[in-house]
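4.2 Preliminary Data

To establish feasibility before requesting continued support, the project team ran the inverse folding procedure on a target of 581 residues. The structure was first converted into the token representation described in Section 3, and no sequence information of any kind was made available to the design step. The complete token record follows.
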């Protein structure tokens, strides 16, 4: 059984083993695409091969310019060299003829081997027929400019314009470009010969849009080459850290940013782990890395160092901090009731993360969870579910928690008490199972009549065997409760209980770490429910050698099941008493 208080070193990533890597990072050579995206590089190489089985490729990646540019450069290096590609149109009055292009300057000769577009319109993609003062001109589109090569497009842009997608698909499959009037009610003013097209398409989007294409075009999707831009890289040792440092310095050079000082790397790794919520993983997103470096450069002079990075991150938190401050003001003013002192039976501080539309970050906020117990038929009432404010995952967590407790009590008959659990002052939908450990503690407290410390907040889900499982948003949850305690004055006994399996996700802000280091705030990592309850109550969970919570509940049930003398008429009770005297 694991039940221990964390030291401050556990609250942030350990970068000490990589100091030598950081010292040499500035002199490291640029990283190649295959070094940090080997699977995608292999898929692209397979797609670019002349004998590729499909002219379509689907790539799961963020639809940002940085990702398009990376894909474009990688494909450009893989495409085989070829001569002049495309066609040439000759216009003689109202007669237009076509012949193969002989020079790159010909009007419909291919301009590039690879091109990308974040958004396309039909005219931009397919070109246009122009008529001015009786003179006709033809304008090439992207399909003509990259004829014989690869065109990288946003799948979202194509699916939002279905007719454009259907026409592009037909062009690629048939290998022929047919000129059409943009106005379906009017034909083209002149007959234009068809043009041969040899084109490959890479469609980039998130998993949801790729799924939509799969539903709409199952045969095409099944035959298409699939690739995925890996969003992160496991940090196993120096080799992975070296590659990541190479990636960061390569992106910094591409954006012509100042050099990176050696002292920035521990802070940058911490910032990266925080963004991805995992100490053992590093993000590979070029757009995220570029944004962090540019924000740092705005606070730096001639070099990107730790002071500039910390200043940039602090400024960002301040800019985005209005909403969290207002929420915590409501708690401090007593409009939202959260207790951080004393002990109460059947009441506990759970932890939630709130995602507000349009707000860039999650907001951690404590929630008061209460449980009342009364005589009944053993029913556990989830008020959120009854009021249709509880989601399916929350309901599942409640049922699992109840099943565990009934199993622990080892009852030979139905529980003679009913319980009601609720998130107090919750006016929106509650979902997720991350509060099931807190709800279990509140239920056991109400049944055993043992008070729970209000100085400690709890997060974690439980399974049917009482094991505490990891949850999301652990950093924001801890910081949300810490901020409330700090505003009211840290007592030295306050803290948060979290799952042991969430240790790898911890990457807390400096003020929390300093408070833990000074012994003013505490974090406890628990492996099962039996670890959490003694911290909250000061009473053992289950024991054969003294008072314990499970024993108190079983004793209360046994007392209830005894014949109730108060139900005997008072005269018979009086006579019974005289006879015994």
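Position-by-position output of the design step:
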């Amino acid at each position: 059984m694991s039940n221990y208080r964390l030291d401050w070193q556990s609250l942030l990533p350990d970068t000490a083993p990589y100091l030598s890597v950081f010292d040499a990072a500035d002199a490291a050579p640029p990283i190649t695409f295959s070094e940090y995206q080997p699977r995608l590089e292999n898929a692209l190489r397979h797609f670019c091969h002349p004998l590729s089985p499909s002219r379509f490729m689907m790539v799961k990646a963020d639809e940002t310019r940085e990702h398009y540019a990376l894909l474009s450069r990688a494909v450009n290096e893989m495409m085989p060299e070829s001569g002049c590609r495309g066609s040439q149109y000759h216009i003689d009055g109202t007669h237009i003829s076509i012949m193969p292009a002989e020079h790159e300057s010909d009007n419909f000769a291919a301009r590039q081997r690879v091109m990308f577009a974040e958004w396309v319109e039909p005219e931009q993609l397919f070109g246009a027929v122009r008529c001015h003062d009786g003179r006709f001109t033809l304008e090439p589109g992207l399909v003509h400019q990259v004829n014989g090569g690869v065109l990288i497009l946003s799948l979202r842009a194509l699916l939002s314009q279905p007719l454009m997608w259907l026409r592009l698909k037909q062009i690629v499959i048939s290998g022929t470009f047919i000129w059409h009037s943009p106005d379906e009610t009017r034909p083209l003013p002149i007959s234009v010969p068809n043009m041969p097209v040899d084109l490959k398409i890479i469609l980039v989007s998130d998993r949801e849009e790729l799924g939509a294409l799969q539903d709409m075009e199952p045969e095409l999707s099944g035959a298409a080459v699939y690739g995925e831009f890996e969003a992160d890289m496991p940090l196993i040792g120096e080799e992975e850290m070296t590659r990541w440092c190479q990636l960061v310095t390569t992106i910094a050079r591409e954006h012509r940013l100042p050099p990176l000082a050696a002292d920035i790397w521990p802070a940058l790794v911490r910032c990266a782990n925080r963004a991805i919520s995992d100490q053992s993983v590093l993000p590979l997103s070029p757009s995220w890395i570029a944004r962090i470096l540019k924000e740092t450069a705005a606070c730096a002079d001639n070099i990107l160092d730790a002071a500039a990075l910390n200043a940039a991150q602090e400024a960002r938190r301040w800019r985005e901090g209005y909403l969290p401050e207002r929420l915590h003001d409501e708690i401090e003013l007593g409009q939202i009731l959260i207790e951080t002192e004393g002990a109460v039976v059947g009441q506990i501080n759970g932890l939630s993360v709130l995602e507000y539309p349009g707000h860039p970050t999650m907001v951690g906020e404590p929630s008061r969870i209460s449980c009342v117990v009364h005589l009944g038929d053993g029913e556990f009432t989830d008020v959120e579910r009854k009021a249709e404010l509880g989601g399916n995952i929350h309901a599942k967590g409640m049922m699992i928690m109840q099943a565990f407790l009934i199993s622990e009590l080892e009852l030979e008959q139905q529980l003679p008490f009913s319980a009601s659990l609720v998130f107090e002052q919750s006016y929106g939908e509650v979902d997720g199972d991350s509060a099931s450990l807190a709800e279990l503690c509140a239920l056991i407290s109400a049944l055993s009549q043992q008070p729970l410390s209000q100085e400690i907040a709890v997060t974690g889900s439980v399974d049917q065997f009482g094991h505490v499982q990891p949850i999301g948003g652990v950093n924001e949850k801890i910081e949300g409760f810490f901020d409330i305690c700090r505003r009211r004055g840290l007592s030295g006994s306050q803290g948060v209980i979290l799952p042991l399996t969430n240790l790898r996700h911890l990457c807390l802000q400096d003020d929390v770490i300093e408070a833990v280091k000074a012994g003013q705030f505490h974090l406890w990592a628990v492996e099962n429910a039996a670890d959490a309850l003694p911290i909250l109550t000061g009473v053992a969970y289950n024991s054969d050698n003294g008072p314990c919570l499970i024993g108190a509940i079983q004793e209360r049930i046994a007392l209830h099941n005894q014949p109730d003398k108060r139900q005997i008429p008072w005269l018979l009770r009086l006579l019974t008493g005289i006879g015994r005297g």
